[in-house]
Write a structure and sequence with these properties.
The complex is a heterodimer of chains A (367) and B (305). With 367 residues, chain A is an alpha+beta fold. Chain A is built from eight helices and 20 strands. In chain A, the strands form four sheets. A six-stranded mixed beta sheet of chain A has the order 6-7-8-3-9-10, sandwiched between helices. The N terminus of chain A is likely disordered. Chain B has a two-stranded antiparallel ribbon with strand order 1-2. In chain B, strand 1 and strand 2 form a beta hairpin. The longest helix of chain B is centred in the N-terminal third of the chain and has 35 residues. The N terminus of chain B is likely disordered. Classes of the chains: A alpha+beta (367), B mainly alpha (305). At the A-B interface, strand 6 and helix 2 of A face helix 9 and helix 10 of B. Chain B: It is found in: Cell membrane. Chain B: Its main location: membrane.
Chain lengths: 367, 305
C-alpha cells in the first residue's frame, strides 16, 4: 500500500472536553489533535467514552465543558446538520423506504445540484464502494456488507471534511470484516478525507489507523501510532487491552532522564527506555513482554538472553500454539505464542523449556 | 395382569396419537383461534349473509317475497334522498378521519419522541375518557355545544357574541366534532406504534446528511409512519360511516346519515329488503373509499422522496 503524503495541518482540535451525566463523567478532560487526511482511531472498551466523543464531533451531543473545532472553526452552537462532518452509523441507518440510489442521494437532494450532476456524484460514490449497478436495489434487498457500503457511499458523497465511523465493521462476520478493513483503508487513502474510527477491536485499530487514541473510563490514556502503542504502551491498562502481555515485577536500580535500570527475578538486570508518562511509585516497577517476543529455544540452540522453565499448559490455535510456561522465581507463569512451523504444538505439557528474548522487547510500564 | 396389559395397550397408543395431533403446529393454531372463529362465523358472517340475501328479496307487507330482484338496489342508487344521505355520510366520515388523524398525529408524535419515561402514563391518560360510556360522551358534547351550553356561555361571557349561537349544535359540524373526539384515541394508538418502530438512528442519519427538523420529518418520520396513518384512517373511517347514535343526538336535520335511513327501514319503514340493500351498498362504497384513500396516501408518501 503506497503511503499517502500526510500534512501536519490540524483538522480537529479537541481541548479539555468533558461530558458529564450528573455525577458520572462519560468523558473527562479529553484533549486531542487530529491531522488532515489522517486515519485516526478511538479505541477502548465499551463505556470508555469513545462513542460519546465521536457523537460530540458529529453534533449529536454537546460537551459539558471544553471546545471542539473542525478545520479551525469552533463547533459550539452549530447543529449536526450544518457541520462539515458525516457519519457511518453502527446500525448503518439505511433509510428503509428508499432504494440504494435514493439513500446515497439523500444529502445531495438539498444542495440542488441538478439531476445530471447529482446522478454523476451518486454513480461516483457507488463506484468508490464497489456497488456500481446496484442503485435500484431496495434497502431490504441488501446484505450486511452491502448495507455498510451504502452507508459509506451516502456519507462520502457529501465530500465531508471528516468522516466519522461508529464501529462500522462490528456487525459483519470475521472474513468480511477483515476484507472491509483493507478496503476502508484503501478508500481513505484514495479520497484523502480525515477518517475517525470508533472501535473496541484492537486489531481493527492496529490494521487501519495512522494513529490511535486508547481510552479508558472517559480519559485518553495514550495517543500514538499503532506500532508505538503496541510496542511501547504507556501503562499496564493499555498494554493489557492491546493483545497479550506478560507482566513481570521489577525493582528500580537506577533512574535517569530517558532510561531505567531495573532488577527482575526471571530476566535479571535490564535497562529499558523510560516511558513519558512514567511516574515512580516507590522502588517497584512493572516490566512487560509480549508473548510473541518470547521464542522457544530448540535442542542445543542458545541465546545471550534466555530464561528456563517448564510448560504447564498448551493451547492449539491452528497457525499458532499458546504455551503457558512456569519460570522459577516469577510469581506468574509466562504466556508464549509460537508459530507451528517447528512443532510447538507437539511440546508436551510438563516438558522443560528454554525461552529466548530480546531485551528491547521488555518495556517499563507505569501502573 | 395380562388382561390389564392388553387393556392398557390400545389406550396408551390412542393417547400418543392424540398428543402428536395436538402438537402439530397447524392443529394448535386452529385450536387457538377456533372459539373466536366460531364466534365470528355465527355473529358476523351469518348476519352479513342474511342481510345480503334480504337485499335481493321484496317486502310484501308482513311477509317477505323471496324471488330474486334488483329493485332494492335500483332504489338505493337512484333515489335522491339515499344518494344524498350516502354522499353526506361519506363526506362526514372523510372529514372525521382527516381531523382525527391531524389531531392525533401530534399527540402520538409527542408521546413517542418526547414522552421519555412517561410514555405508559401518557397512553393511560388518553384512555381515561373511554371509561365513560360513548352515549354519555355524546351527551356531554350536547352540553358543550347547546343553546345554553358551555361554549355559548363562555363566548357570551367574553363578549364575543351577544346572544347564544344556534349554529353550534344540530348540524354536520356538530357530528364531525363529536365523532372526532370519540375516535381520537383509536387513531393515536396505531400512529404511536408506527412512530415507535422508527429507528432513531435514521433520524440522526437524516440530520447528519444536512436535514433540519422540518425536512427530516417530511422525508423520514412522516413516510415511515404511513402504515400507522393508514390504519388510523381505516379504523376511524369505516365505523363512522355507519354511525347513527351521534347524528341522531347532535346531528339535527342536517346531520342525518345513511345509517339513520337504514335503521328507519328496518324499524318504522318496515322494509327490510330496502334496508338490506342500503347496507350492502354502503359497505361496498365504504370499502371502495377506504381502499382509494389508502392508495392515495401510499402514493403521496412515495412522492415525498
Amino acid at each position: 500500500m503506497p503511503e499517502r503524503s500526510q500534512n501536519d495541518r490540524t483538522m480537529i482540535e479537541i481541548s479539555h472536553v468533558t461530558r458529564s451525566y450528573g455525577a458520572f463523567k462519560a468523558l473527562d478532560d479529553a484533549s486531542l489533535v487530529i491531522r488532515e487526511g489522517e486515519f485516526f482511531s478511538l479505541l477502548g472498551p465499551s463505556g470508555c467514552g469513545k462513542t460519546t466523543l465521536l457523537r460530540m464531533i458529529a453534533g449529536f451531543d454537546n460537551p459539558t465543558s471544553g471546545t471542539i473545532a473542525v478545520d479551525g472553526q469552533p463547533m459550539a452552537g452549530i447543529p449536526a446538520n450544518r457541520r462539515p462532518t458525516n457519519m457511518v452509523f453502527q446500525s448503518y441507518a439505511i433509510f428503509p423506504h428508499l432504494n440504494v440510489e435514493q439513500n446515497v442521494a439523500y444529502g445531495l437532494r438539498r444542495l440542488r445540484l441538478g439531476a445530471a450532476e447529482e446522478k454523476r456524484r451518486v454513480e461516483e460514490a457507488l463506484a468508490q464502494v464497489s456497488l456500481t449497478g446496484l442503485g435500484k436495489r431496495g434497502a431490504h434487498e441488501l446484505s450486511g456488507g452491502q448495507r455498510q457500503r451504502v452507508a459509506l457511499a451516502r456519507a462520502l458523497v457529501m465530500r465531508p471534511k471528516v468522516l466519522l465511523l461508529d464501529e462500522p465493521l462490528s456487525a459483519l462476520d470475521k472474513k468480511l470484516r477483515e476484507q472491509m478493513q483493507v478496503e476502508l483503508r484503501r478508500l481513505q487513502q484514495a479520497v484523502g478525507i480525515t477518517f475517525i474510527l470508533v472501535t473496541h477491536d484492537q486489531y481493527e485499530a492496529l490494521a487501519m489507523s495512522d494513529r490511535i487514541a486508547v481510552m479508558f473510563g472517559g480519559r485518553i490514556a495514550q495517543v500514538a501510532s499503532p506500532k508505538e502503542i503496541y510496542q511501547r504502551p504507556v501503562n499496564r491498562q493499555v498494554a493489557d487491552f492491546l493483545g497479550g502481555m506478560n507482566f513481570v515485577k521489577a525493582e528500580i536500580v537506577e533512574e535517569n532522564g530517558s532510561s531505567l535500570v531495573v532488577d527482575t527475578l526471571g530476566f535479571g538486570r535490564v535497562k529499558t527506555e523510560k516511558p513519558k508518562a512514567f511516574v515512580r511509585n516507590g522502588g517497584g516497577a512493572t516490566l512487560g513482554i509480549r508473548p510473541e517476543r518470547l521464542r522457544v529455544l530448540w535442542d542445543d540452540a542458545s541465546s545471550k538472553f534466555e530464561v528456563a522453565g517448564r510448560v504447564i499448559e498448551r493451547h492449539y490455535f491452528g497457525e499458532i500454539t499458546h504455551l503457558i510456561v512456569e519460570i522459577p522465581g516469577l510469581e506468574k507463569p509466562l504466556s508464549v505464542t509460537e508459530t507451528n512451523d517447528f512443532g510447538a504444538d507437539d511440546i508436551p505439557v510438563g516438558a522443560p523449556i528454554r525461552l529466548a528474548y530480546d531485551p528491547d522487547a521488555l518495556v517499563a510500564l507505569a501502573d | 395382569m395380562t388382561a390389564a396389559a392388553e387393556g392398557s395397550q390400545p389406550l396408551s397408543l390412542g393417547r400418543r396419537q392424540r398428543t402428536s395431533l395436538l402438537q402439530s403446529e397447524a392443529a394448535q393454531g386452529f385450536a387457538l383461534i377456533s372459539p373466536t372463529f366460531i364466534y365470528a362465523l355465527v355473529l358476523l358472517v351469518v348476519p352479513i349473509l342474511v342481510v345480503v340475501a334480504h337485499s335481493f328479496w321484496t317486502q310484501n307487507y308482513l311477509t317477505i317475497d323471496r324471488t330474486f330482484t334488483l329493485e332494492n338496489y335500483r332504489i338505493a342508487v337512484t333515489e335522491p334522498i339515499y344518494l344524498d344521505l350516502l354522499r353526506r355520510s361519506l363526506w362526514i366520515s372523510l372529514l372525521v378521519s382527516f381531523f382525527t388523524v391531524v389531531l392525533a398525529y401530534p399527540i402520538a408524535f409527542y408521546i413517542s419522541f418526547h414522552g421519555g419515561r412517561h410514555k405508559g402514563l401518557w397512553l393511560f391518560l388518553i384512555t381515561i375518557p373511554f371509561w365513560t360510556s360513548y352515549l354519555l360522551r355524546v351527551m356531554s358534547w350536547k352540553v358543550i355545544l347547546g343553546y345554553n351550553g358551555v361554549l355559548n356561555s363562555g363566548l357570551m361571557g367574553l363578549g364575543i357574541i351577544s346572544e347564544p349561537s344556534t349554529a353550534l349544535l344540530y348540524n354536520t359540524s356538530a357530528v364531525v366534532i363529536t365523532l372526532t373526539h370519540a375516535w381520537a384515541a383509536f387513531a393515536i394508538l396505531p400512529i404511536f406504534v408506527s412512530l415507535e418502530k422508527i429507528d432513531r438512528s435514521l433520524i440522526e442519519a437524516a440530520t447528519d446528511l444536512g436535514d433540519g427538523p422540518l425536512r427530516r420529518f417530511l422525508r423520514i418520520t412522516l413516510p415511515l409512519s404511513v402504515p400507522g396513518i393508514v390504519s388510523a384512517i381505516l379504523i376511524v373511517m369505516i365505523p363512522t360511516v355507519g354511525d347513527f347514535v351521534t347524528p341522531k343526538l347532535v346531528g339535527g336535520k342536517d346531520g342525518v346519515m345513511i345509517a339513520n335511513a337504514i335503521q328507519a327501514q328496518f324499524g318504522k319503514g318496515a322494509n327490510w329488503p330496502l334496508g338490506a340493500a342500503l347496507s350492502v351498498t354502503t359497505m361496498l362504497v365504504v370499502t371502495a373509499m377506504a381502499a382509494s384513500t389508502v392508495l392515495i396516501i401510499r402514493s403521496a408518501a412515495r412522492m415525498a422522496r
